[in-house]
Amino acid sequence: MGPLELDALIDRVVAEETAALRESFLGGAEFAVTGMESPRQRLLHRLECTVVEPHLDRRAQWTDARRARLGADLRYRPALPTLMTREAARRLPSVRSCKVCWPNIHGRDPVPLRTLRASGLRDTHAGRILSTEAGESLGAIARVSARTGPDLFGRPADAIEVVTSSRVFAYAPTEHVYLWNLPTDAAVIERKTRLFQRLGSDLAPAG
Question: Which of 83, 100, 106, 64 has the alpha carbon at shortest distance from 25?
Answer without folding.
Answer: 83
